[in-house]
Design brief:
alpha/beta; 47% helix; 434 Repressor (Amino-terminal Domain)
C-alpha cells in the first residue's frame, strides 16, 4: 500500500471501540433477516420512512444506525428477543468515534475504512510496487516520504501516527498477520539519504524474523504483468462470516470492491504475485544485496 496519504497523531489505537466491525456485523445480519422474511428493500424502507437506497446503505454497513430504525426493522423481520437485544446493542456501537477520529481533519475520507479495518483485522495481505508499505516503514523513511507531499508543520504528526499504526504487529495476544509482496523496484527507489535506505532495509530483515510477518521480493515490473492497476491490499477479519475487504489505493483516492467475484479475483491476483515473487526464505539474501549498493 502506497501509504503517502495515511496520516494522524493519535497515541493509541482501539479496534474494539471502532464502529467498523459492528457496522459490518449488523449490516450482514439485517440483510439476512430481511431476505429470510421475504421482504423487499422497498417495503423495509417504508417501515422506517426511508428509501430503498437507505436500506441498501444499511445492509452494506456504510453508516451509523439509528436504534429506532433498527428496532422497527427487527420487528418487521420477526427477530426473536435474544437476537433483537444483540443487534440493538450492536447498533449502539455503530455510532462510536473511530479510533483515528482525533486526526479526522487530516485523514482523507477515502482511507478511513481501511484504517479501521487494519486495526481490527486478523490478517492483511498487501502488494506494493513503489514504496515500502506503511506498516514496515522506519521513522526516517516515513518522514522522508511524507515530507514530499505534506507541509512541514504536519510532518511529525503524520510520522507519529504511522508509528502508532505499526503497534498492530506487536499487539497481544494476537498480533496482526502481515504478508507483503514488494516489487524490488521500491527498494531501489531512494527515499531520503543512503543511511535512511540502509536502515529501512535492515528494519525489514528484522521484521521478517517475527512469526507474524512475511515479506517476499518480486522481480522488477511485476505490477504490469500481474497486478496491472497498482497497489493491492486484502484484509480478513477474525469475526466469522464477515467478507474480506479489498483496498485499492490510487492517486488521492481508493476503491473498495465488494462483489464476491471481485474479492475472489483480487485474492487470485495476490496468490499469483506470491508464486511469481522469490520465496520468503530468500528475502534476507536479496535485501543484503540491495543494502550493499547504498
Amino acid at each position: 500500500m502506497a501509504s503517502v496519504a495515511i496520516t494522524g497523531r493519535r497515541q493509541s489505537t482501539d479496534a474494539q471501540g471502532d464502529p467498523l466491525v459492528p457496522r459490518m456485523l449488523l449490516a450482514r445480519r439485517l440483510r439476512a433477516l430481511r431476505e429470510a422474511a421475504g421482504i423487499s428493500r422497498r417495503d423495509a424502507a417504508r417501515e422506517i420512512r426511508g428509501s430503498g437506497s437507505k436500506i441498501g446503505r444499511m445492509e452494506l454497513g456504510r453508516s451509523g444506525y439509528r436504534a429506532a430504525d433498527v428496532a422497527a426493522l427487527l420487528t418487521l423481520y420477526g427477530a426473536d428477543d435474544d437476537e433483537r437485544a444483540t443487534l440493538l446493542a450492536l447498533a449502539e456501537r455503530t455510532t462510536a468515534r473511530p479510533w483515528w477520529s482525533a486526526d479526522g481533519d487530516i485523514v482523507p475520507a477515502w482511507v478511513r475504512p481501511y484504517l479501521s479495518a487494519e486495526q481490527a483485522a486478523k490478517l492483511v495481505r498487501t502488494f506494493e510496487a513503489q514504496f515500502v508499505p506503511g506498516l514496515l516503514q522506519t521513522e526516517d523513511y516515513a518522514r522522508a516520504l511524507i515530507r514530499r507531499v505534506n507541509p512541514e508543520p504536519e510532518v511529525e504528526r503524520r510520522v507519529e501516527f504511522r508509528m502508532v499504526r505499526q503497534r498492530v504487529l506487536r499487539r497481544r495476544p494476537r498480533p496482526l498477520n502481515l504478508w507483503v509482496v514488494l516489487d524490488e523496484a521500491a527498494l531501489w527507489r531512494p527515499i531520503g539519504d543512503p543511511a535512511t535506505m540502509r536502515a529501512q532495509i535492515r528494519h525489514i530483515v528484522e521484521l521478517c524474523r517475527r512469526p507474524n510477518v512475511t515479506v517476499q521480493i518480486a522481480p522488477f515490473g511485476i505490477c504490469g504483468r500481474v497486478a496491472g492497476d497498482g497497489p493491492l491490499t486484502l484484509v480478513r477479519f477474525p469475526q466469522q462470516g464477515l467478507p474480506d475487504m479489498v483496498y485499492l489505493e490510487r492517486a488521492n483516492s481508493a476503491v473498495y470492491p465488494v462483489r464476491r467475484a471481485e474479492i475472489e479475483r483480487h485474492w487470485h491476483v495476490f496468490n499469483t504475485l506470491v508464486t511469481e515473487a522469490a520465496p520468503p526464505e530468500h528475502t534476507p539474501r536479496i535485501l543484503a544485496g540491495i543494502f550493499g549498493t547504498y
